[in-house]
């Protein structure tokens, strides 16, 4: 029998969990700061993904950015999750700059 390391495939440091991958991982944090800076927003992230989605919906942004603001967390979570799966199942890793460009394309 052997032990499998439960390390995050995105940062390689912390134990992997959904909340870590999508919120607390250093790659997720960098990506999120990038996203929030696009809206001129600063805020402390909640502990869980469900709380993020709840808080995100209640946050107020300018009317002309409202539609983009509503889909942004879903795009962010999708990009992080697909990158994680690409690393796990395909052994492929995109540089953070490339991930950000994919996000902007969405």
Automatic annotation (TrEMBL):
Q: What is this protein called?
A: Reverse transcriptase zinc-binding domain-containing protein
Name the source organism.
Davidia involucrata (Dove tree)
């Amino acid at each position: 029998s052997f032990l499998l390391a439960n390390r995050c495939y995105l940062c390689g440091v912390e134990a992997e969990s959904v909340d870590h991958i999508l919120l607390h991982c250093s790659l997720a944090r960098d990506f999120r700061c990038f996203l929030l800076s696009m809206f001129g927003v600063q805020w402390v992230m909640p502990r869980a993904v469900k709380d993020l989605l709840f808080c995100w919906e209640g946050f107020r942004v300018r009317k002309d950015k409202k539609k983009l603001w509503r889909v942004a967390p879903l795009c962010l979570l999708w990009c992080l999750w697909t990158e994680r799966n690409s690393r796990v199942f395909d052994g492929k890793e995109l540089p953070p700059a490339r991930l950000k460009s994919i996000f902007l394309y969405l």
